[in-house]
Every structure is written in structure tokens, then in C-alpha cells.
Amino acid sequence: MKKIWVSATLTAFAAIGFSAQAQAAKVDVCVFDLLGKSGESFQMAQEWALAAKGWGAEVNLIPRQDEAVADNDFKAGKCDGVFMTAMRARQYNKFAGSIDALGGAPSNAIAQRAISFALDQRNAAKMVTNLGGKKYEVAGISPLGSAFIFVRDKNISSIEKAAGKKFAVLGYDDAQKIMVQRVGAQAVISDVSNFVAKFNNGQVDMVGAPAYAYKPLEIYKGLGNNGAMFNFPVLQVTADFVIRPEQFPAGFGQKSRDWFVKNLPKAMSMINRLEGEIPAKYKMNLSAEDKTKYQKMLRDGRMDMTKRGIYDPAMMSVLKRARCSVEKTNFECSLGGE
């Protein structure tokens, strides 16, 4: 009788274990990467998907080389989650999407602090939004590095000399369009899939991009022998991982965010390496006076964008604390307004 009871108990436990495996959530996640499966973002997503098995999710990664297609697939329910740039993901969560604010995180060290804080458990409620009766959650933020301004002609050696020049901007980011117009340049509406191509073939004179894009998008072709890169970060480019939480196991979002925090140092090391690989001959260093002038200009623009509702005011406070914890003597640390 005892043997029968033990056997029945073991069978029951085995059945429970099998049931738990069978109930692992199967989800489709679209991953935007200009290089598809061979890109750094997709490779990072593969590492994340492997870890997600431990959180009860069986992830099917779907590569998308067109970011608009990835977003539309997510909207249409073809994907349960999507990796895309924060500038486009801002529509789902303004708090996380505002890390990319102009001049908000002017160094990789500052960006790392801001991202770590945003993904911390104390901000879990800010990661969830309800839009049009649909629930969204930011389950990860990954840095892509500081964006620098590249010019085809190094004689465009200051923002003042950019007046009248054509500047490629991402059409879905109002902040870029407004800021380019404020400095007197011509905003040429583009998409992430073609903005550098316009620079390379001479359709625009200037473009902003991270070192992450330098080799894959062949920015050196646009620089040629007479181009330059302003060695002054104008914003931090990040990627957001947005999900429909009801499609994932309970507690999945925070476990995923914790994974992104744990992998931040690795991502930052890669970014520093890529920035170091841009040839020194292209880097145009600014004077301390010009740097302060441009920081003030970006601050004014950032505050204006926040008043317009483009940026999230709570994230602006986070970014300022991050900046002043790294650069305590910065002029803005004694000022209010953010």
C-alpha cells in the first residue's frame, strides 16, 4: 500500500512539473536592428531571451530591419513585445522615453546612472502605462551611446555656422525638428532606416548619430576627406523593450528590468569601444567656452520641450540629479527649473 502511495505521489509531482513546463508563456518579440540577425541589438536580445526562459517565457525573436514595421507589428498584435529606439517608444511611456532628452545625459557614465535608476524596482509603477484601454510595460532599457553631430564639411565648425544647412531629423521625434529649427538649420524629415544614407549621398549636410552606427551605416562615406564629428554629445540614444504584460508571466517585467541593469556595464564597455574606434582625424574638439554655451542652449531647449509635453518632467529631474552627481561643478547644479 505504501509503495502504491509513493508511486502515486511521484506521478502527481511529475505531472505538476510537466504542466508547469507546458504552461510556459510562448511569446513573439519583434527586434529592430538595422543589421537584422547579425546586429549587436539582436545578439543582445538573444542573450535576454535565453535568460527569459528562467522567468517562465519561451521567446520567439522576430528580426525587423525597419523600425516602423516593428512598431506596426506590435500595434497590430503580431508581436507581444518590441525592442526599438526610445524616441519611437516614447509614445508608449514618456518617462522611460525621455532619457533621450537633448543634453539630458551628456556622458555614458551619466546615462548609466539614469538608466539604472529608471529600471529600479521603486519605479516599477512608472514603467506601466494604460493607453486607449491597452496596458503597456517597459521591461528594459538598453544604451546605444551618445549621439554626436557629423558634418560633411568641417568648415561647419560651430552651431552658428549650421544656419541654413540641411540636417536630417527623425520625423517622429518633434524635439529634433524643433531644436534644428531653433538653430536656423533646415530640418529634413527622415527615418532611422535612411537618415544616414541621406548624409552619405549629400542630400543633407549634417546628421546626429551614435558611434554604434558609424561602421554599420558607413558614416565615413559621408565624412569623406573633408568631414568632421563634433566631439560633444548632444543626447543619449537608448532602446526600450515594450511589452503587453498580460501576455507574459506575472512579475516578468521587473525580472527583465533587473537583467538589463545587470548587463549595463557590458553594454557601456561596448559603447566606449565603438566610440574609441572612430578615427581621431574626424573628431573636432570644442573649447570649454563653446561646450558651456551649447550645454545652456540644450538646457533651454530641453525645458521648452518639457513645457510642450514632449519630455517627462519626472525624468528631467532624474537626469539632472544624475548629471550633478557626476559633474558637481556644472553651472546648472545651482539652478532650478528641472
UniProtKB/TrEMBL annotation:
<dbReference type="InterPro" id="IPR038404">
    <property type="entry name" value="TRAP_DctP_sf"/>
</dbReference>
<keyword id="KW-0732">Signal</keyword>
<dbReference type="InterPro" id="IPR045758">
    <property type="entry name" value="AdeT1/2"/>
</dbReference>
<protein>
    <submittedName>
        <fullName>RND transporter</fullName>
    </submittedName>
</protein>
<dbReference type="Pfam" id="PF19582">
    <property type="entry name" value="AdeT1_2"/>
</dbReference>
<feature type="signal peptide">
    <location>
        <begin position="1"/>
        <end position="24"/>
    </location>
</feature>
